């Protein structure tokens, strides 16, 4: 019985309450329904340790009180909950072959077409975390615009569920030692080095900010965007989702891409057996099939 009463037993080595069966079962169902993330029994200790920080931040005495908060107002805590149970690991130009494909092939083609037609170019960074991905995309896009089509209307939408991650992306300030994937030339051009109390930090160039719109979005909820995208980057995001959620998400992505638009996944992710709307055309690169 004590296992169901999370406030009665201290979490071993964590200095806090134990996550009991009843509360963990609720959290598993809640997270699956609202975030599409499937938590196994093996994740209990991880969830307990990470959510203890939320309990302390909110001044709650136990996990039952936290679960009650989620029942009362799920939207208010959704981003912080998702941040706590997922791992935001990202870097500039991670999986560089995707950026090479954009720079060398796709952007020159797209921009030539947009210049002729007067159309817009749109890229979506879905699950943008702290901003490294969309700002890396913005570097490549800014350079391509200068070279191929300065007048084309081009923008990057960057979305994430985590308020903390979005705050970091909006700030656009990174430790210099986190710029390892950025070439020396791009560092000089696209970052402003901090001085004095800001020494050791680098801020993204205002031009990159102009190209990137940062917005909160839960991928499982309604999408407010009315237009379509030439490419969607959703890398190292669906790895957390169960199969039905992945299937629904891939169908929705297909509906938000232009004909023969591109979807980029992470290195450990695959669409195999989950969707027939796309064809694999490169390493974790998928193109929407013609209608």
UniProtKB/TrEMBL annotation:
**Residue ranges constituting the CheR-type methyltransferase domain according to the UniProt record:** 19-291
Write down the top EC class of this protein.
Answer: transferase
Q: What Pfam families does this protein's entry cite?
A: CheR, CheR_N
Write out the catalysed reaction. Answer: L-glutamyl-[protein] + S-adenosyl-L-methionine = [protein]-L-glutamate 5-O-methyl ester + S-adenosyl-L-homocysteine
Q: Which InterPro entries match?
A: Bact_Chemotaxis_MeTrfase, Chemotaxis_MeTrfase_CheR, CheR_C, CheR_MeTrfase, CheR_N, CheR_N_sf, SAM-dependent_MTases_sf
Question: What keywords appear on the UniProt entry?
Answer: Methyltransferase, S-adenosyl-L-methionine, Transferase
One biological-process term from Gene Ontology?
methylation
Q: Can the keyword Manganese be found in this entry's annotation? A: no
Q: Give a yes or no for keyword Methyltransferase in this entry.
A: yes
Q: Which domain of life is it from?
A: Bacteria
EC number per UniProt: 2.1.1.80
Q: Where are the membrane-spanning stretches? A: none
Question: Which positions are annotated as binding S-adenosyl-L-methionine?
Answer: 88, 90, 94, 133, 160, 218-219, 235-236
One GO molecular function term of this record is: protein-glutamate O-methyltransferase activity
Tell me, in a sentence or two, what this protein's role is. Answer: Methylation of the membrane-bound methyl-accepting chemotaxis proteins (MCP) to form gamma-glutamyl methyl ester residues in MCP.
Query: What is the designated name of this protein?
Result: Chemotaxis protein methyltransferase
Q: Which organism is it from?
A: Dyella marensis
């Amino acid at each position: 019985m004590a296992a169901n009463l999370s406030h009665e037993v201290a979490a071993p080595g964590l200095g806090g309450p134990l996550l009991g069966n009843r509360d963990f079962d609720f959290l598993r169902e809640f997270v699956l329904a609202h975030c599409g993330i499937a938590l196994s029994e093996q994740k209990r200790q991880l969830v307990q340790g990470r959510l203890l920080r939320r309990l302390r931040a909110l001044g709650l005495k136990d996990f039952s009180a936290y679960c009650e908060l989620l029942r009362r107002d799920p939207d208010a805590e959704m981003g912080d909950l998702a941040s706590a149970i997922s791992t935001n690991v990202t870097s500039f130009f991670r999986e560089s072959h995707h950026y090479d494909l954009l720079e060398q092939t796709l952007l020159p083609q797209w921009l030539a077409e947009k210049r002729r037609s007067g159309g817009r170019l749109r890229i979506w960074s879905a699950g943008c975390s702290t901003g490294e991905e969309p700002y890396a995309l913005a570097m490549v896009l800014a350079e391509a615009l200068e070279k191929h089509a300065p007048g084309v209307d081009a923008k990057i939408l960057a979305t994430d569920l985590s308020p903390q991650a979005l705050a970091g992306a909006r700030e656009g300030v990174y430790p210099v030692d986190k710029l390892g994937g950025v070439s020396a030339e791009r560092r000089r051009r696209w970052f402003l080095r901090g001085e004095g109390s800001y020494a050791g930090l680098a801020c993204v160039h205002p031009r990159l900010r102009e190209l990137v719109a940062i917005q909160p979005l839960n991928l499982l909820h309604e999408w407010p965007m009315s237009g379509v995208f030439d490419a969607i980057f959703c890398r190292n995001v669906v790895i957390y989702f169960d199969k039905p959620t992945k299937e629904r998400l891939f169908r929705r992505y297909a509906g938000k891409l232009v004909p023969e638009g591109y979807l980029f996944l992470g290195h450990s992710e695959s669409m195999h057996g989950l969707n027939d709307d796309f064809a694999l055309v490169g390493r974790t690169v998928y193109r929407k099939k013609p209608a």
